[in-house]
UniProtKB/TrEMBL annotation:
Protein name (record): Defective in cullin neddylation protein
Gene of this entry: LOC108568849
Organism: Nicrophorus vespilloides (Boreal carrion beetle)
Domain DCUN1 residues, every copy: 44-232
InterPro entries (UniProt xref): DCN-prot, DCN1-like_PONY, PONY_dom
Lineage, top ranks: Eukaryota, Metazoa, Ecdysozoa, Arthropoda, Hexapoda
Physiological role: Neddylation of cullins play an essential role in the regulation of SCF-type complexes activity.
Length: 243
């Protein structure tokens, strides 16, 4: 039998190159498709964000996320409803009422944070907590909390709500917080107005624990003058009892 004719090295190389080029094109196309899917998943999508919002709303009120939906939302992202990070999130949404997010507020806040899923908001929780470490951001969040938490039918914040919010915002950072909380419990005050609320923060930031730099002739609200008098009297009594 005659030998079969073998292809030249050049012919083999050409065929292999065509196959290799074809394979590269397929891999590149597949890679681009996969890359596009990854990019789409990473990019904020308003429609996806709105669909996510609807998971927490009732059919009879699809534009408002209420207390039950809030509980489920907090459970999904792994945060307790009373955690301070939820206040920071509400601040970023500029939510008007505690326990509720409107569709407009949800989209405004989460568009700004570029979050349209549970995993994305979880990845941003540390960022939200870090805002509390910045004095200017903290002051803005503190002031926001007053209108956010108070009963909208009242101009002032009821004392129970005020004490809860003060504990959340100042409880871990103000050395005189426990004293001030005890003062409020035995005081005549039933509500806190906005001027008092804002001055409590300034007092906590500027007045020494020994009260030596407190100016009795300063422009502090009467509530804080009374707190200083109360605290001095209690310290004097404690000192007498111990002597």
């Amino acid at each position: 039998m005659p030998r079969s004719k073998r292809r030249s090295t050049t012919e083999m190389s050409s065929v292999d190159e065509e196959r290799y080029a074809s394979k590269r094109i397929r891999n590149y196309t597949s890679s681009r498709r996969y890359g596009n899917r990854v990019d789409e998943a990473l990019q904020f999508n308003q429609k996806r964000c709105l669909t996510w919002f609807r998971e927490y709303t009732a059919p009879d009120d699809p534009d408002t996320l209420g207390p039950e939906g809030m509980e489920k939302f907090c459970e999904d992202i792994g945060v307790e409803p009373e955690n301070i990070v939820m206040l920071v999130l509400a601040y970023r949404m500029q939510a008007r009422q505690m326990g509720f997010f409107t569709q407009e507020e949800w989209l405004r806040g989460l568009s700004d944070l570029q979050c349209d899923s549970v995993s994305k908001i979880q990845a941003r929780l540390d960022h939200l907590r870090c805002l509390l470490n910045d004095q200017n951001h903290f002051k803005a969040i503190y002031r926001y909390a007053y209108d956010f938490a108070r009963d909208k039918d009242q101009r002032s914040m009821d004392m129970d709500t005020a004490k809860a919010m003060l504990a959340l915002l100042l409880g871990k950072h103000w050395s005189l917080y426990t004293n001030f909380s005890h003062f409020l419990e035995q005081s005549k005050y039933k509500v806190i107005n906005k001027d008092q609320w804002c001055n409590i923060l300034e007092f906590s930031r500027t007045i020494n624990i020994d009260l030596t730099n407190y100016d009795v002739d300063g422009a502090w609200p009467v509530m804080l003058d009374e707190f200083v008098d109360w605290l001095k009297a209690n310290r004097a009594k404690t000192s007498e009892d111990g002597s």
